[in-house]
Amino acid sequence: MIRFFTRFVATYGYDSPKEFFLSVAPSFKYNLQFPAISFSAVTAVVSEWIGITPFLAMAMLIAIVSEMWTGIRASKVQGIGFESFRFSRCIIKLCIWLTIIYITHSFYLESKAGAEESFVMLLATLFFSIVKVFVMTWFCVEHVTSILENLAVIDGKPKDALIKQVGILWVTVTDKFRRKADETEG
Fold first, then answer.
1. Domain layout of the chain by residue ranges
2. pTM (2 decimals)?
């Protein structure tokens, strides 16, 4: 069986099963398996506790890190040093968003518990499921907005320059859909 597996992975250019495994889980190659497994475990627990799907959790993490990174760069461009006060504002915003997500998830779980007994609770479960994803997506959109503000400052433009471009794009796209809808009605 091992010989078969060795020949099989060799057809993909791997010299040994170990080399194949290190390609599948490269954190082991760099002795980072503990941080990788710890991060995965924490993500799973938080996902279950708060109700954040792993995809949205990663999107939220990327949004937070990107906002902090672009915010620090924008501050440097403006000649403002790193301040713990400004960083704490980022943390308080994150806590507020996570609290909203947690409360929404709690309502979802509560309604789900009674969904088999009541049609109203089933509708509430559906509603809070949608609201939870809505809030998590809104979180990401708000962070992208902040990132766009920071990127505009980094490029030496007014803070709202990229936001205005997004607004123009939104109007263009919605106008096209409106015209298509008008054409199909008329």
1. 54-185
2. 0.67
